[in-house]
Amino acid sequence: MRVMAQIAMVMNLDKCIGCHTCSVTCKQTWTNRTGVEYAWFNNVETKPGVGYPRRYEDQEQWKGGWTLDRKGRLVLRSGGRLKRLLSLFSNPDLPSIEDYYEPVTYDYDNLVSAPAGPDMPVARPRSVLTGQPTSITWGANWEDGLGGASEHAGGDPNLTGEWARKVKFEFEQTFMFHLPRLCEHCLNPACVSACPSGAMYKREEDGIVLVDQDRCRGWRMCVTACPYKKVYVNHATGKAEKCTFCFPRIEAGQPTVCSETCVGRLRYLGLLLYDADKVGEAAATPNEQDLLDAQRGVFLDPFDPGVIAAARESGIPEDWLDAARRSPVYALVSKYKVALPLHPEYRTLPMVWYVPPLSPVLDAVTSAGGNQDDPDHVFAAVTRLRIPLEYLAELFTAGDTDVVGGVLMKLTALRSFMRERTLGEAGDESALKAVGLTAREAEDLHRLLAVAKYSDRYVVPAAHKEDAAALTAMENRCPVESSGEPAERKVMLGIPTLRRRDPEAPAGGHA
Amino acid sequence: MNASGTDLLLWVAFPYICLAVFAVGHVWRYRQDQFGWTSRTSQLLEHRWLRWGSPLFHLGAFMVIAGHVVGLAVPASWTEAAGISEHMYHTTAVWAGSVAGVAMVTGLGMLCARRLLSRRIRLGTDRSDKVLFPLLSATVLLGISATAAHNVFGGGYDYRETVSVWFRGVFTLQPQPEAISGAPLLFQLHALSACLLFAFWPFSRLVHVWSAPIGYLVRPYVVYRHRAAARATVVRGASAREARTRRAA
């Protein structure tokens, strides 16, 4: 057993209102530079929808992630090492800028400098790439709130099979939810594995996947290999860039920018301990629908004395072990098992998980004349109203509707029990028991999901003093830079102050 | 040695200056500009021309480089000793060289065309590209027209007795400017523009040649690095080798 720690994220999709605050604050922090105008390290897409970049989930086309060869060995879908080197000159599976969208700016100057005339001056859109007037025909979330869905959403790669035809057919009674996405900081990262230069790496201490800007040579294989298309080419520098999980903030014990600014408070950050020796085996699990359990099997129980001893041996500090025990991510992923990974069938073992949304099912209950406060109605809906359930299963469980259904029933039972409690009743525990929760656990889970205090959502232990030299090195260089002359190149980020825990306060989060 | 002053300047001083700039330039660039050391891909912005142009150019270039190594570095007496007659050598060189040359010229033509015709690419072209593309094109065109004029359509010119002798002399530190001074003008111009290209090499995107990722074939898939080591490499690329790589899968 080789114990490693990773900062992981869980998002509670029922709370996402699609306000894009996470995307905008992320962009302001990391990608408001020439060359990455089109890149969104964090984006929010409407589902069903084709996503960003267009149809990125169609791995038949984009060749992202891993697959098993005939002998059951784990291989990159984009091909072996030799094939990758042979496609260095022209990568056949690289999305073009049109698959993202053409970034634009506006003629703002015209608003104040236009000569006096009978018409109100307007700011026309201009392509950032060519500087010429352009018309905006696509964007990072073109189908926001299902706008134009009747035209585009049918292109969603998750809509395959018999049931999907019904979705397209019944668009008047459609369902939707928002899906915020960022780099998954996978346990078995395909981008790292495809990087010919060895410039991409996973940090041993906290599992964050980064691009070493000094070693990247612009071979662009990472973009193809990432099935989530969360590595981007900076077209000004010719180098790869990606979500950094805001590591300067994480090292200082602070949540990422997307988490910190999340209006719906739907993001959770915490540690997960995992056994690095079991990663390869788990990723090569033969049946796609077993990948979820296989990945949960890689995670270690931070309360287990054996794990604690092995973790100490691996050099994981005490306050990190403490943080791992209080981790909301561990609770949602492994203890209550209400969080699910996005597309486990890509075999990268992603580390940003999602609590699937009940709202599409509840909408279906209401439209079918049921009462969404009645767990029986909802249970019936979960099993009978196949469309949203099958769609969610396609996203989160490689098509296994039983698992998604089980999570949704758990959430329904929790809601109904806690509603009764709040109204002063004793609460009917039979529904709870049916989904495997005790009253005590239900209150715990309710606190985590519904009350969701800042200190409960974010348990981020600061990096260690032993690494202080490393932290000060941050002041010299920044992991992302803009193009141009060496002297102008330095882009200084606001380096957050180190939030050191005082002996009384628990590690991470506000007291 | 009875070379004129001009010959000494063109065929001794100039090549050595260019080679010195080549060597020192690379050391300087590698130490100072790891961030700028890249192939500067533009495939994101334009991929239709690149799809054919880039592989044609690169594969053609590999063959052309191999041909130059054989033609310039290997003395005629060696191939003679290996039982390859001058005629056989010449015929093979012209045929293989023509295929490689045409592939490289076509590819380079397409790459230049996309750079000029696609506005996105043109705007993203930096100063070093504006020198590199004309210089590279000139060298390639001079080379292929020298071959075409003298060896394909002309009576045949044995550069292995003149240009190659001069070339080897430069590297064995026994420069023989008189060997090339009598060569046809196209060969001379080709040699001079090639010297310039070598001098400009370290300041252009051509440095990506030295980063050809051959090590990838034997590396473990997943790369792990310590935070401290990672930071250290970000501070200065030199300590990148200290970064540990370990196998995960």
TrEMBL record, chain A:
<keyword id="KW-0408">Iron</keyword>
<keyword id="KW-0677">Repeat</keyword>
<dbReference type="InterPro" id="IPR029263">
    <property type="entry name" value="Nitr_red_bet_C"/>
</dbReference>
<dbReference type="GO" id="GO:0009325">
    <property type="term" value="C:nitrate reductase complex"/>
</dbReference>
<keyword id="KW-0249">Electron transport</keyword>
<feature type="domain" description="4Fe-4S ferredoxin-type">
    <location>
        <begin position="207"/>
        <end position="236"/>
    </location>
</feature>
<dbReference type="InterPro" id="IPR006547">
    <property type="entry name" value="NO3_Rdtase_bsu"/>
</dbReference>
<dbReference type="InterPro" id="IPR038262">
    <property type="entry name" value="Nitr_red_bet_C_sf"/>
</dbReference>
<keyword id="KW-0411">Iron-sulfur</keyword>
<dbReference type="GO" id="GO:0042126">
    <property type="term" value="P:nitrate metabolic process"/>
</dbReference>
<dbReference type="GO" id="GO:0016020">
    <property type="term" value="C:membrane"/>
</dbReference>
<dbReference type="Pfam" id="PF14711">
    <property type="entry name" value="Nitr_red_bet_C"/>
</dbReference>
<dbReference type="InterPro" id="IPR017896">
    <property type="entry name" value="4Fe4S_Fe-S-bd"/>
</dbReference>
<protein>
    <submittedName>
        <fullName>Nitrate reductase subunit beta</fullName>
    </submittedName>
</protein>
<keyword id="KW-0004">4Fe-4S</keyword>
<keyword id="KW-0813">Transport</keyword>
<keyword id="KW-0479">Metal-binding</keyword>
<dbReference type="GO" id="GO:0008940">
    <property type="term" value="F:nitrate reductase activity"/>
</dbReference>
<feature type="domain" description="4Fe-4S ferredoxin-type">
    <location>
        <begin position="173"/>
        <end position="205"/>
    </location>
</feature>
<dbReference type="GO" id="GO:0009055">
    <property type="term" value="F:electron transfer activity"/>
</dbReference>
<dbReference type="Pfam" id="PF13247">
    <property type="entry name" value="Fer4_11"/>
</dbReference>
<dbReference type="GO" id="GO:0009061">
    <property type="term" value="P:anaerobic respiration"/>
</dbReference>
UniProtKB/TrEMBL annotation, chain B:
<comment type="function">
    <text>Does not seem to have nitrate reductase activity.</text>
</comment>
<keyword id="KW-0349">Heme</keyword>
<keyword id="KW-0534">Nitrate assimilation</keyword>
<feature type="binding site" description="axial binding residue">
    <location>
        <position position="68"/>
    </location>
    <ligand>
        <name>heme b</name>
    </ligand>
</feature>
<feature type="binding site" description="axial binding residue">
    <location>
        <position position="58"/>
    </location>
    <ligand>
        <name>heme b</name>
    </ligand>
</feature>
<comment type="similarity">
    <text>In the N-terminal section; belongs to the nitrate reductase alpha subunit family.</text>
</comment>
<keyword id="KW-0560">Oxidoreductase</keyword>
<keyword id="KW-1133">Transmembrane helix</keyword>
<feature type="binding site" description="axial binding residue">
    <location>
        <position position="208"/>
    </location>
    <ligand>
        <name>heme b</name>
    </ligand>
</feature>
<feature type="domain" description="NarG-like">
    <location>
        <begin position="8"/>
        <end position="227"/>
    </location>
</feature>
<keyword id="KW-0812">Transmembrane</keyword>
<dbReference type="InterPro" id="IPR003816">
    <property type="entry name" value="Nitrate_red_gam"/>
</dbReference>
<dbReference type="GO" id="GO:0005886">
    <property type="term" value="C:plasma membrane"/>
</dbReference>
<dbReference type="Pfam" id="PF02665">
    <property type="entry name" value="Nitrate_red_gam"/>
</dbReference>
<comment type="similarity">
    <text>In the central section; belongs to the NarJ/NarW family.</text>
</comment>
<keyword id="KW-0479">Metal-binding</keyword>
<dbReference type="GO" id="GO:0046872">
    <property type="term" value="F:metal ion binding"/>
</dbReference>
<keyword id="KW-0408">Iron</keyword>
<dbReference type="InterPro" id="IPR023234">
    <property type="entry name" value="NarG-like_domain"/>
</dbReference>
<dbReference type="InterPro" id="IPR051936">
    <property type="entry name" value="Heme-iron_electron_transfer"/>
</dbReference>
<dbReference type="GO" id="GO:0008940">
    <property type="term" value="F:nitrate reductase activity"/>
</dbReference>
<dbReference type="GO" id="GO:0019645">
    <property type="term" value="P:anaerobic electron transport chain"/>
</dbReference>
